[in-house]
Each structure stands twice: as C-alpha cells, then as structure tokens.
Amino acid sequence: MLSMSVTAPARSSSTATPTSDVLLDFRNVAMQFPNGTIALQGVDLTVKRGEFVTVVGPSGCGKSTLLRIASGLESASEGTATVETNRIGYVFQDATLLPWRTVQANVELLAELHGVKSKDRAAKAKEAIDLVGLTGFEKNLPKQLSGGMRMRASLARSLTLEPELFLFDEPFGALDEITRERLNDELLRLFVEKQFAGLFITHSVSEAVYLSTKVVVMSGRPGGIVKTFDVPFSMPRDPDIRFTPEFAALVGEVSHALREGHH
Q: How far apart are CA 241 and CA 255, in angstroms?
C-alpha cells in the first residue's frame, strides 16, 4: 500500500488489491485555498468496505471539498488522505449528462474513456441501466428525461466501472421529496447488492440517517468533525422506518449536533 505522511499535497492511491477493509482514510486533513480561505481543519475520517457514511454540515463547511480530495480532484494542504482503491465512482449534484448523447451512450461514456471495448461496455451499460430502472429509455436524450431519471442515468454511468468506493455530492438535492425518497430506496438497494463503500454529502438530516451506516456532523468553516453517529437500523432498510419513533429520535440527535456545531 502507498501511504504518505507529509504536509502538502497529501493524497495517496493504491492500485493493488486492498489488504484491509479501509478504502478511505483521512488523518488530520486540512485544506487552505490560495485566497487564504481555510475550508477544512483537522479532519479524521475512515470509510470501510460495506460502510455508507454520510456527511452533514452547514453550507460552506467543506463537505464537497472532502469529496474532491477523496477523488483526487484536490490535494490536501496538510495531513494524509489515503485512498486504497482506484475504482472510484463519483455522482455530482448535477447529472452532468452530455445532451447530444442517448442514455445508452451517456452510460457507456466512462467505460469508453477507460478503453473498454465497444461490445463489453455496451453489455456493462445494459446491466447498469437495468439496475437503476431505466430499461426502455436507452435511446432517449437527457432532455426527454425527468430530473430523477437523469440522476439514475448518472448513477448507471458510474456503476459501469464497478466502483469499490462511491462518492456522492448531494445528488438528490434538487429533486422533489417523493422522487428523492424513491431514489434513496434505489440507492440502498444497490448498496446492499453491490457492497461498495459510500461517502455521501447532503443537507438533509433525514436522508442522512435513512441512507447511512454512519452519519458524520461537520462544524461551520473551517470544517471539522464535531460528532459521529452510528445508525443502528439494519440493511436492507424498510422505507417505513422513516415513520418510527426511533428514526425520529436519531434525526433529532443529529439535528441538535448540527445546530451546536454551527455556533
């Protein structure tokens, strides 16, 4: 395994088969931008295989910066950011589909960029499209899809690479509540089926509790972790758990920690 312990830049990635269940490990990670803004400070965060970790925090606390460091789009200013896999999926706030490509061609895009042969990537795309429930829409263009369907296509595109670590940057934030809940259910089904590790960013505390095995609460800028909650509900998760007193109580605890960390 590659691992670095330097002050800048600090991200390592291993292409070897991981020998442990830890796929993402941040130790004392800080991020200061060239304009002097300190986005993150002293962040310790571990994501293991089979864990779904959701981060909640006030706007501007560095949640998305965490994901960018994990994906390699940014390098930490201080600390170590170790990623023990090169199979990473990234789903953005926007579906980022190419408007001139059909659903099939959009879903094939990442596999195409990774040099997967045409026949193989078509098969991978078909499997991913089936998994996210878009069968029958392969020839549609993005403009012919609803917002929820576009996010499904974005999810399918990343699934073609069979990621071990999935990064989600508020992918359902712009959707209506019913569509959002339905996609939460679909994402949990995929998580149980594929057993990837997930790191998910959201502003919704109830979404965080429903999706996660662990919820991490961040403070206002500079973002640091103020509290971590283990979510006791088993997987697969019954959608009706959202209406139980136990669920409401945990949402309340997380919300309280979020308010405390914002002061």
A: 18
